[in-house]
Amino acid sequence: MAHIALSTSASASATLLLPFNRGAKQWTNKLVPGFPKRYGTGFSLFPNKVIRFVGSGVTVANGGVVEISEGEKAPRSYVWQDNKKPRVCILGGGFGGLYTALRLESLLWPDDKKPQVLLVDQSERFVFKPMLYELLSGEVDAWEIAPRFLDLLANTSVQFFQDRVKLLRPADHLGMNGPSRSRCGGTVHLESGLLIEYDWLVLALGAESKLDVVPGALEFALPFSTLEDAHKVDNKLRTLERTNFGKGSPIRVAVVGCGYAGVELAATVAERLQDGGIVQAINVDTTICPTAPPGNREAALKVLSSRKVQLLLGYFVRSIQRVGNAEASEKLTDSEAVPGIAAEHDHEKYILELQPAERGFQRQIVEADLVLWTVGSKPLLPLLEPSDKPHELPLNARGQAETDETLRVKGHPRIFALGDSSSLRDSNGRLLPATAQVAFQQADFAGWNLWAAINDRPLLPFRLETHTLASIIETTQ
After folding, report:
1. Total domain count, the chain
2. Starting at the edge strand that comes first in sequence, how are the strands of the sheet with 364-368 ordered?
3. pLDDT for position 338
4. Residue 343 CB: number of other CB atoms within 10 A?
5. Between residues 475 and 421, which one has the greater pLDDT?
6. Angstrom distance (rounded) from CA 289 to CA 366
């Protein structure tokens, strides 16, 4: 499969995974605290978007001291094993959260300062999201890119809870709780009823796809950012392939968004369907991957062209409707008809109304058997417990926590935020992209700055390192 090179591309990510030999057991052996330093920052820039807290029971790794049965809601306090040592609670087990925990594990600590680390995530598995696309191409199975947290953390002192966050009550707001050396930083309330008192908190909750901005998208479009999403898309493609087998009518797939994720997804689906499908990629910008270096963008365009992906650039989706065969045919006038649409289908079809984003473009109607959505995301920060005291987290318009250069949330010296949860900007004032590479690099700094804060040392400002891999278009058999 030919991978697209996009400033630390998916092919680079796949190459970095080769030492794992794929599989949860190999991940356990290789994902040691020294892993970030060994492999640097060569992770994909594809969005690492989603953490949905949907679990209810508590799963405890490494001999945790609290057990809560499924469905139990009565509040109970988590008992840390040693109340004299710092207590670090990390919310979210994606690239940012997991690698912050591993970074803390790898650092050298005075005996009385090494923190107890608790990682909380809704899922039992860490998902290497840059390789979700390979599930669609059949190159990997789910277990190969989604090892269990229990396995990854088996040889560490990090504890793991499978649960979801309900409320957050910080107690470190400036001017209200004394200096930053105060013992307790706040409390996290989990859905299971467990209360976790922490000294230091890391917000790495990721984000969820935002489909409610366009009529019909929430009902009819499929996102592609979680393992569950990938399974749904794969199952839908399998159904379409069975339904259309031997009929000579192509499977029509519309991919909304031509950022990193949309481009990779369109290329993967087109490669899977070959001549049996028509893939159309829609983007509001007049170019794909507008933030990518020109060389990487050109490489991506070549791959899309070689796979016959049709680009509809300079359009935004105004609405998506599900229609029957007869109704779909009536909606397509002669001037709007899309070449290659079969007269009859045995399954539902969707109509996308495209509105031009610039003058000179004409309104278009696109018919599709499957609509994939890769634009828009909503950070998943927990609610704050109601109080008459002003301890709200400062958020930007996107719902991300405002942080300083050291990744600490402004006004909250005991809370760090990274990845999709952070609104950190680069030297040019632009928001850092919500990608796996950024979250991975921030985890390294977050771990170090927690060490520095606990040991009364200066914190380091985060600086993003970029590695251009424009020459990489790797072909694997």
Report:
1. 2
2. 315-323, 349-356, 364-368
3. 42
4. 7
5. 421
6. 22
Residue 20 or residue 51, greater confidence: 20
CA distance 447 to 3: 32
For residue 38 the two structure tokens come to 């060994």
pLDDT digits (tens, 9 = 90+) for 139-175: 999 989 999 999 999 999 999 999 999 888 888 865 4
Statement: the pTM of the whole predicted model exceeds 0.90: no
Q: Where is the domain boundary, 310, 345, 373?
A: 373
Q: Which domain holds residue 332?
A: 217-373
Per-residue pLDDT of 328-354, as tens digits, reads 445 444 444 444 333 334 468 999 999
Spatial neighbors of 441 by CB under 8 A, at least 6 apart, are 41, 462, 464, 465
Could you tell me the sign of the dihedral formed by the alpha carbons of 375, 381, 386, 390, in that order? negative
- Residues 123 and 23 placed together within one structural domain of the fold: yes
CA separation for the pair 384, 281 (Å, rounded): 39
Residues 53 and 162 in one domain: yes
Is residue 396 domain-resident?
yes
Whether 199 and 187 have beta carbons less than 8 Å apart is answered as no
Structure tokens at 156: 């560490």
